[in-house]
Design a protein that fits this description.
The chain has 311 residues and is mostly helical. Helices cover 59% and strands 4% of the residues.
């Protein structure tokens, strides 16, 4: 390492050590958090040494972007890069307060966005298999009605928990729900789901522990409005009973509803309204699922989709 590089390392280490001491004594951060800060600052220190920067104060925004690109090329996850950037911002803010200079070269630099994961869905046959409930108890009838309503109307978990008995208009086959941002929307309910709900209401306990539970569509065996955790556990249990090879959760049924609706109709705006998405970009993720399905159909059906043997 050159003399300039050695000077760079020494000056950076001195500043970084003072910053860590500040975080420990003044901010009183945990040992685990301090270790994370040290690792991130060592990475930035190595970058300074490689590029012959005499001290951290000499770094400009372009340097920070180059450092972030380097971290990305090394395979660091977006969340890890974001943490490193956060440490760098705090470090430069500290140096600015100590020196009186307010410039923070990391302030406007963003970590690469994490690739958006496609939601897990069930195909139509898997949904049919999953919904083969044995309605031999009142709880089983309730669980069947819950699962049917999820898949029929694409509800969020919190929306389904909040549904009351008078929210469903059986004549028009419509359900009024309150979603994110306290926004109300009306969604259709399929006949199969309505029949499952009717069978549940026939055995639903009439006694309730409180006024809110008395109006709830789905209640526990103790007469309380059913909880989020209870629904998650019951749907997961039914998946195992029906022989599914993956855990089934409420959002998987919502995702399956959206994917199947878009696949059949191709109407992105309608699916957006049904799901209660404020922004259509949120709904557009289901077009990727649709394209995956189309690609599989193409590969299986088109005579020139696959390479010929020996080519």
């Amino acid at each position: 390492m050159t003399t300039a590089g050695a000077t760079s390392t020494t000056e950076f280490e001195r500043s970084a050590a003072a910053f860590i001491t500040y975080l420990k004594d003044v901010r009183q951060l945990s040992a685990h958090t301090l270790d994370n800060y040290r690792r991130d600052l060592v990475s930035l220190q190595d970058f300074c040494a490689e590029h012959n920067r005499a001290c951290a104060e000499q770094l400009v925004e372009a340097d920070i972007r180059q450092w972030v690109s380097q971290l990305h090329r090394r395979g660091l996850a977006g969340s890890s890069i974001q943490r490193s950037l956060s440490a760098a911002r705090s470090f430069f803010n500290y140096l600015g307060r100590e020196s009186g200079r307010l410039r923070n070269p990391a302030a406007s630099v963003q970590a690469p966005r994490k690739p958006r994961k496609l939601p897990k869905t069930l195909d139509a046959d898997q949904v049919e298999k999953y919904l083969s409930f044995a309605e031999d108890t009142a709880i089983a009838r309730r669980d069947r009605a819950i699962a049917e309503l999820f898949y029929s109307s694409g509800l969020r978990l919190a929306e389904l928990v909040a549904v009351n008995t008078n929210d469903i208009d059986r004549d028009s086959q419509l359900l009024t729900v309150t979603g994110k941002g306290n926004k109300t929307r009306t969604v259709p309910v399929g006949s199969v789901a309505l029949e499952a709900i009717a069978r549940w209401l026939a055995v639903r306990p009439t006694s309730a522990t409180d006024p809110d539970s008395a109006t709830a569509l789905f209640t526990s065996s103790r007469g309380q409005r059913i909880s989020v955790r209870s629904i998650q556990a019951r749907l997961k249990l039914q998946g195992r009973k029906s022989g599914m090879h993956q855990d089934v959760h409420p959002h998987m049924l919502r995702h399956s509803f959206a994917s199947h609706m878009l696949e059949s109709s191709g109407d992105l705006r309608a699916v957006q309204e049904l799901l209660g998405h404020a922004n259509i970009s949120t709904t557009q993720i289901y077009t990727h699922l649709d394209f995956q399905h189309l690609a599989k159909v193409y590969d299986a059906a088109h005579p020139r989709a696959k390479r010929r043997k020996g080519s």
